[in-house]
Specification:
The protein is an alpha/beta fold. The protein is about 35% helix and about 20% strand. α2 packs across α4 (about 70-95) and α6 (about 150-160) packs parallel to α7. Residues about 205-210 have low confidence and may be disordered.
C-alpha cells in the first residue's frame, strides 16, 4: 500500500519498551519493529527515536557502591545502549533492513553547522535504506545540557528532518479530559492551535523516563506550529503505527479519522510550514547568548500576520554580550517571551542603535521565530 506520508519520526518511550520490573519487553519491541518494517517496505522513511537504554542497563549491572543520579545514568545507559541497539539490529535483520545508531547531545544542535551535519548524516542513511535509531548520548551528557527527555529530542529530529508526522508513543492512549485512571475520562481526539489544556495535563512522570505529558504537550505544540502533524498514542496497542497512518490518510482524503479508529490525540498542524532555518531557531532557545527587550508596539507588530523584523526603534534594552549570528531571546515590556532570533549585529552595535530610525534590523524576519 502506498502511503501519503513519505517520512515520519516515531518516538518510543521507556514505558512502552520495558516491563514493570524494568527489563526490556522484547515481545513489544518485536511488534513495533514489525510495524516499522512494514512501513519501510511500503516506501515510508522512518526515523526511530528510542528510549530504553537506561532501563535496559539497570538490570544488567549492579553498582559496587552508591552512585549519584548522573553516575547511575551514565553507567546504566552505557551498558543498556549496547543491549538496546543490538536487540534492534537483530529484530530488523529478520526483515532484511539495516539500522544505524545515532547518539546525540543537546550541544550538537547549538550551532547551525552542527545541526546541518547531523541532518546530512541521517539523510544519507535514509537515502541508502538505513533506518536511523536515535537516542541521547546519556553517557557523556550532564544535567544542565540534557534534553528534557526524548520527547524534546524527537521534536527536534522531526523538525530538522522535515518529517511530515511525529508520533509520540507512550503507555496511555493520548491526552485525557480528566485523570487517565478515571473511567469517566476520555481521550481528546484533536487539539487545535492555542487550545488551553492546563486543566487536563497530569504532571506526574513515567516510571523509567524523565518526562511527562506536560513535556509531550509543549513539544507537540511547537512542532505542530511548524506544520508537522503530531500524534500522542499508546505504543502498547496492536498495529498502532499503521492504524495511525491510515486514519491520518483518511483525514487527508477528506473522510475524517473515522468513528471506530484507534484512540489517540492529534495536534492540528499549522497550514504555513516554517522554513528550515526558523525550525532550527525554534528549538534553540537554550543556546541564546543575549536578550532583546522590545516595546509594546513592537510586540503587537510581531504578534500580527505581518512579516516584521526587529528594528532598533522598537528595542528598549539589550542584555548580555553576543556576536553577529548568535541567537538571542526577544522579550516584551513585562519580560514575557516573544521569540528567538539570529542576531544581525553585535550586542555593542545593538546598544548603540537603540531607539534610532533608519538602522538595519537587529534580527531579520527570515531569522526570527515568534512563539
Amino acid at each position: 500500500m502506498k502511503h501519503c506520508f513519505s517520512r515520519i519520526t516515531v518516538k518510543v518511550g521507556s514505558n512502552v519498551l520495558t516491563r514493570a520490573d524494568g527489563t526490556l519487553d522484547v515481545t513489544r519491541m518485536s511488534a513495533l519493529v514489525d510495524q516499522v518494517a512494514a512501513l519501510h517496505r511500503a516506501g515510508v522513511e522512518v526515523i526511530l527515536v528510542s528510549s530504553g537504554a537506561v532501563a535496559a542497563g539497570r538490570n544488567e549491572v549492579r553498582a559496587q557502591h552508591k552512585l549519584d543520579s548522573v553516575d547511575q545514568r551514565q553507567l546504566f545507559s552505557a551498558v543498556g545502549q549496547v543491549k538496546l541497539i543490538n536487540r534492534y539490529y537483530e529484530l530488523f535483520r529478520e526483515h532484511g533492513i539495516p539500522v544505524g545508531q545515532v547518539l546525540t547531545m543537546k550541544e550538537s544542535f547549538s550551532t547551525r553547522r552542527h545541526y546541518l551535519n547531523q541532518k546530512n548524516c541521517m539523510t544519507v542513511m535514509l537515502e541508502n535504506g538505513v533506518i536511523p535509531i536515535v537516542n541521547e548520548n546519556d553517557t557523556v551528557s550532564v544535567s544542565e545540557l540534557m534534553f528534557t527527555d526524548n520527547d524534546e529530542l524527537s521534536g527536534l529530529i522531526a523538525s530538522m528532518m522535515n518529517a511530515q508526522m511525529l508520533i509520540l508513543l507512550t503507555n496511555v492512549d493520548g491526552i485525557y479530559d480528566g485523570p487517565p485512571a478515571d473511567p469517566a475520562s476520555a481521550v481528546i481526539p484533536e487539539i487545535g492551535r492555542g487550545q488551553a489544556l492546563e486543566g487536563f495535563i497530569q504532571t506526574t512522570r513515567s516510571s523509567f523516563g524523565r518526562g511527562g505529558m506536560l513535556t509531550k504537550t509543549s513539544i507537540a505544540r511547537k512542532v505542530a506550529d511548524e506544520g508537522i502533524v503530531v500524534v500522542i498514542a499508546n505504543g502498547k496497542r496492536e498495529q498502532v503505527l499503521p492504524d495511525i497512518l491510515q486514519a491520518e490518510e483518511r483525514r487527508l482524503a477528506g473522510g475524517g479519522a473515522g468513528e471506530n479508529s484507534l484512540p489517540y490525540t492529534r495536534f492540528t498542524p499549522s497550514a504555513s510550514p516554517a522554513s528550515s532555518i526558523k525550525k532550527w531557531i525554534a528549538h534553540s532557545e537554550g543556546f541564546t547568548k543575549g536578550v532583546l527587550h522590545v516595546n509594546r508596539q513592537a510586540v503587537e507588530l510581531l504578534s500580527s500576520d505581518k512579516a516584521v523584523s526587529i528594528l532598533p526603534i522598537g528595542i528598549t534594552a539589550v542584555e548580555g554580550e553576543f556576536e553577529k549570528d548568535d541567537l538571542v531571546r526577544i522579550v516584551g515590556p513585562e519580560g514575557q517571551p516573544v521569540g528567538v532570533g539570529k542576531a544581525n549585529c553585535t550586542s555593542a552595535q545593538a546598544r548603540e542603535d537603540i531607539g534610532q530610525h533608519g538602522k538595519k534590523p537587529v534580527v531579520h524576519y527570515d531569522y526570527l521565530y515568534i512563539e
